[in-house]
Design a protein that fits this description.
Layout: E1 3-7, H1 12-23, E2 27-31, H2 35-40, H3 47-56, E3 60-63, H4 70-80, E4 84-87, H5 101-122, E5 128-133, E6 146-148, E7 153-155, H6 176-196, E8 200-205, E9 207-209, H7 221-231, E10 234-238, E11 245-250, H8 251-263, E12 269-273, E13 280-282, H9 283-294, E14 299-303, E15 313-314, H10 319-324, H11 334-349
Helix pairs in contact: 1-8, 4-5, 5-6, 7-9, 7-11, 9-11
This protein binds nicotinamide-adenine-dinucleotide.
Residues 7-8, 10-14, 31-36, 46, 66-68, 88-90, 92, 107, 111, 131, 133, 205, 207-208, 213, 220 line the site of nicotinamide-adenine-dinucleotide (NAD).
Length: 350
């Protein structure tokens, strides 16, 4: 039986990794200390998801460890010597980081280095997949010229018709402290590939979403937006007339890519990974779609100030990823993703 170590296993992506690899016969070891509840309060608590995984996957083992704890990680990796490592644990919020700079950097940058070095010492041949983010590009994507449509901003420069690719620069733009700590981690993961020849990759996510997110105002916009609709709560829109665009990818499709990378790994790679143009949506369009699905109007208020460094329009160009892994494709449409999240909140709230 092959063994996988996944950090952040109670979170959105980590829990989907547990389910995806358990389903194909792997023994899965998860590391999570529920720090999402510490970052975001009770609404961010992930224990419900941990309990769900323990109940549904017999080959899943939970380790209550903190990725900041270097010796705990060294001990765990030495004891397990996994066949692959997937790193999804993080302080994931662009907005929260400025109020907790040490926690943000210690988890995102130092925690990643701890895991890389523990992997190198215990099992350097194990493929290492790191969840990075499109925030490593800072607000450089905002330099692309745009057209204002009725419900969304669109790229007017034809160079970006297919979205933003991995050649976008990562420095000399505004990142937020979160984007900066993720740049440190991203570059370090690449470097362990280049310096030590380890099979590593960074997945620079657009909006990753799905039914198992513990969405809160500061992170997981679609999950939180749909929850607000269901509960009749007021959603706050920050600037850009509500026409800001995100490309959304279901966690199931993220894990399908991770499985392909682990089956045929490369070294020191970076890939943009999002829903692409067909799965892109603006906030105003998301309001309309969820109202159509739920039959409930969306309550919202407009704050005439965008989040600092927030992208106006971000769509991932998936060309590189598809050329390296031609069998992979998006399988969950935007509407299906909305419906699944809506259904999940319905069950959880009830
Ligand atoms: N969700 C998105 O839209 C999105 C977009 C781009 C990139 N990403 C990246 O993908 C990864 C996964 O995101 P997610 O949405 O699943 O996040 P999540 O918050 O749902 O999951 C992260 C998990 O890590 C755990 N964790 C946090 N600090 C920890 C620590 N010190 N030790 C052990 N566990 C810890 C949390 O408790 C949580 O369960 C992150 O690296 C994030 O930056 C996410």
């Amino acid at each position: 039986m092959k063994k996988l170590l996944v950090t952040g296993s109670s979170g959105l992506i980590g829990s989907e990794v547990v389910a995806g690899f358990s389903a194909v016969g792997w023994e899965v070891h998860g590391v999570d200390n529920n720090m999402r509840a510490d970052f975001f309060g009770p609404q961010g608590d992930t224990r419900w998801n941990l309990n769900r995984l323990l109940e549904t996957h017999a080959s899943f083992h939970h380790h209550e460890a903190d990725i900041r704890d270097r010796s705990a990680l060294m001990g765990l990796l030495q004891a397990l010597r996994p066949d692959a490592v997937v790193h999804t644990a993080a302080q994931p919020s662009h907005d929260l980081a400025a109020s907790r700079p040490f926690d943000d950097f210690d988890v995102n940058a130092v925690g990643t280095l701890n895991l890389l070095e523990a992997t190198r010492l215990a099992c350097p041949e194990a493929p290492f997949v790191h969840m990075s983010t499109n925030k490593v590009y800072g607000d450089a994507p905002n330099e692309i010229s745009l057209i204002e449509r009725e419900t969304r901003w669109e790229y007017s420069d034809p160079t970006f018709a297919g979205g933003i690719d991995e050649r976008c620069r990562i420095d000399q733009s505004k990142h937020s402290l979160f984007g900066s700590s993720k740049v440190a981690a991203d570059v370090m993961v690449q470097e362990y590939g280049r310096t030590f020849g380890m099979p590593t990759c960074c997945l620079r996510g657009g909006c990753l979403t799905g039914p198992n997110h513990s969405g809160v105002e500061l992170h997981g916009f679609l999950s939180y937006l749909i929850k607000c609709n269901l509960e009749g709560r007021t959603y706050r829109v920050f600037g850009y007339k509500g026409k800001q665009v995100r490309d959304n990818i279901h966690s199931h499709d993220v894990v399908a890519f991770i499985q392909r990378f682990i089956a045929a790994p490369r070294s020191g790679e970076v890939y943009n990974l999002g829903g692409g143009q067909p799965n892109s949506v603006s906030i105003l369009e998301a309001f309309a779609l969820i109202s159509e699905i739920s039959g409930q109007a969306m309550n919202y208020e407009y704050v005439d100030q965008n989040r600092s460094g927030d992208h106006i329009c971000y769509i991932s160009d998936l060309t590189k990823l598809k050329s390296h892994y031609p069998g992979w494709k998006i399988t969950k449409s935007l509407r299906t993703t909305f419906e699944e999240i809506h259904q999940a909140w319905h069950s959880r709230i009830r």
